[in-house]
Amino acid sequence: MEFGWGPEAVQLRAEVRALFDELVTDEMHERVRSTGTHDDPVLRRAIAERGWLISHWPTEEGGRGWDGLSAAPLFDEAGRCGAPFEGYLNTMLVAELLRRVGSDLHRVDVLPRLVRGEALVALGISEPDSGSDAAAARLRADRADDGSWILNGQKMFTTFAEVAEFVLVLARTDHVLPKHRGLTTFLVPTQSPGFSVAPVATLGGERTNVTSYDDVIVADTARVGEVNDGWAMMGLVLSLERGVFPVVPGRCDGLLEQAVEWARTTPGDGGQPRMADPHVAERLAWIAVTNEVGRLLALRTVAAHAEGRVPVVEGSMTKLFTTEAMQDLVETLLDLVGPAGLVTDGASGAVAGGAFERAVRHAPLETITGGTSEIQRDIVATAGLGLPRSR
Ligand SMILES: Cc1cc2nc3c(=O)[nH]c(=O)nc-3n(C[C@H](O)[C@H](O)[C@H](O)COP(=O)(O)OP(=O)(O)OC[C@H]3O[C@@H](n4cnc5c(N)ncnc54)[C@H](O)[C@@H]3O)c2cc1C
Q1: If I label 358, which of 35, 72, 207, 365 is the partner at 20 to 30 A Cα–Cα?
Q2: pLDDT of 380
Q3: Predicted model pTM
Q4: What is the CATH number of the domain that holds 79?
């Protein structure tokens, strides 16, 4: 069995590193931290220009026809250096949806602009009263006499709405059918009259938003998929969200490298580096092994997606395992480093440029966004193991 990377992946890793070395600067990190928006138009367009996120698409659709795993180094490298392109990743989930089920209009007018990194799409699924139970969405879309739709309601956690050109909105179009069957999906332009965005700050510093829809009118051509088939559309996006663009193992690699550096250069009680303590070395090794398991789960998900399958169970396993592993990692780091691990960047005594402190605040978000760990366990139990549904 060959465990090495193929030639395309090796070449891609070198290209990715070169691009990130050039573009992902301290100024970029600073800008992203101050706004909380993990998007940079220059970086996004540079990645788009190279076609890395669609390298598994056939050449006639603009891809390179590569096998799915060839693009995997992109996610590792992006995670490791903290390249802020989550907005583009979000958008490419919608691109995958439009590619599979979009109308001709969406495929001609919208899809190419998403692929080229010219326009971002935010996901409008969660609401103030329906987070995990997304199918209970109440934002309503009522059909007008001329066939257009009028949207009224609120969405919670619409990340990237402040920079996106569209929001993919899950709306209730039938109030009598069972909740999963009365929903429809729309691609709503954020310039529409009646649409507004209010920021929500998070513990990790990432910005998300509440978005409000006050008599927002969209043409029927904004609809993605059939009327009342919105749950299937969102199911596809959510399944893809959970693992086909896995950046968490790379993020853990970056933290682990900083932890090893800290352990090698920080003297312990007897003046020896902390790494000389077998307890410290063993815990760091355990983190490295766990992260490698997460990466393998992620690769399996990426491969399944590239083969054209929707990796529902693999994606949930990857999301659950890698984000909980990240949470364990930051707890271990705090345990080893002690209170200094909580000192913020710029303050005296900060360790690893404040990276550990930032990770402590960021890691819990990873276990929530994209569906909480409990929801992933539920999917693995029911769809993966065939256990009875709990709800
Ligand atoms: C930073 C951030 C960014 C996000 N970005 C987006 C976005 O761009 N678009 C979007 O639509 N959504 C987004 N979300 C929403 C996210 O994907 C989650 O689905 C949502 O936060 C969960 O809903 P809730 O917060 O209302 O929690 P609740 O659903 O109220 O859950 C509260 C607790 O109950 C548990 N729970 C709920 N139901 C069950 C169950 N059936 N079994 C066991 N336990 C259960 C949950 O695991 C959780 O611990 C984002 C969330 C965050 C924090």
Answers
A1: 72
A2: 96
A3: 0.95
A4: 1.10.540.10
